[in-house]
Amino acid sequence: MKPQTITAVIPARNEEKNIERCIKSLLWCDKIQVLWMGTDETGRLAKSLGAEVIEMKKTEKDNFIEVQKNVNWAIDHCTTDWILRVDADEEVTIQLQQEIKELLGTGVRVAAYGIPRRQYFAGGFLRGGDWVYDRLVRLFKPKYARYDPIVSVHEQFKVNGEIDYLKNPLNHYSHPTLQDALRKFDVYTTAESKDLHETTLSALMKLIFLPPYIFLRWMIWHKGYKD
After folding, report:
1. Which residues contact 211 (CB under 8 A, 6 or more apart)?
2. Nearest in space to 50 (alpha carbons), one of 68, 28, 83
3. Cβ neighbours of residue 201 under 8 Å, at least 6 residues apart?
4. What's the Rg (C-alpha) of the chain?
5. Better-scored residue on pLDDT, 151 or 96
6. What is the per-residue pLDDT across 59-89, written as a single tens digit (0 to 9) for each?
7. Distances from the Cα of 121 to the Cαs of 49, 124, 176, 178, 180, in angstroms?
8. What are the φ/ψ torsions at residue 132 (nearest 5 degrees)?
């Protein structure tokens, strides 16, 4: 059976600190596309490493809606059997690479795969907490998947077919320092607050009950105390 083909799609803004590590972990793919939205050296670095750089609408700040639109564009124009969507601050491990390559050499019937992520936080990979259970659909057949509807946070990636899960992880270097973590939290909470339509009562109830619930879930049930 002929191995199936795959395109790695990397949405990126100003990621010159991360893009080299990301692309080097994807050189085994048939094609690497960087959907570039920024103004720094990301595009030049990506081209020098052999990636196809497609300049998209430039944004001054992180824009989750544009990222989803750009990935949908890549889906619509894809010429390979599969897409592996990877963020610029992520890295495909050798074990994950081998698992995907073995999968592409077989007759795969599912439409998409969820992939676990190892979260790098302030100097090391987390061993507990909610993020350890992170599973995102990142490997998929383009004709069966896309973002719909497009929203500012909590993206809605719809798959028309069966989803399975891979065993080996992506490494995610989203929070190398505490300062990076606080900046990201600010970006996400600001975006989410614009989508909320709360009554005073519901907001008050969340304020009272959500913090202890999240603490117990993160620290006890998901063993965040390990960190």
Report:
1. none
2. 28
3. none
4. 18
5. 96
6. 888 888 999 999 999 999 999 999 999 999 9
7. 27, 6, 5, 8, 9
8. -65, -25
Q: Which residue has the tokens 């993206």?
A: 155
| Sequence-ordered list of residues with C-beta below 8 angstroms from that of 17, at least 6 positions apart, any chain | none
Q: Token pair for residue 189?
A: 């909470």
Least confident of 98-102, 128-132, 178-182, 219-223: 178-182
Q: How far apart are CA 70 and CA 85, in angstroms?
A: 11
**DSSP-derived secondary structure for 31-88:** EEEEEE--SSSHHHHHHHTTPEEEE----SS--HHHHHHHHHHHHHT--SSEEEE--T
Q: CA-CA distance, 9 to 12, in Å (whole number)?
A: 10
The predicted model gives 13-35 an average pLDDT of 97
Nearest CA among 27, 157, 162, 147 for reference residue 108: 162
Quick check: helix, strand or coil at residue 90?
strand
Parallel, antiparallel, or unpaired for β 112-121 and 135-140? antiparallel
Give the three-state DSSP class for 173.
strand
Token readout for 139 is 């490997």
Count of Cβ atoms closer than 10 Å to residue 63 Cβ: 18
Residue 47 phi/psi, 5-degree rounding, is -65, -40
Give the residues across from 54 on adjacent strands. Answer: 35
Amino acid identity of residue 213, one-letter, is Y
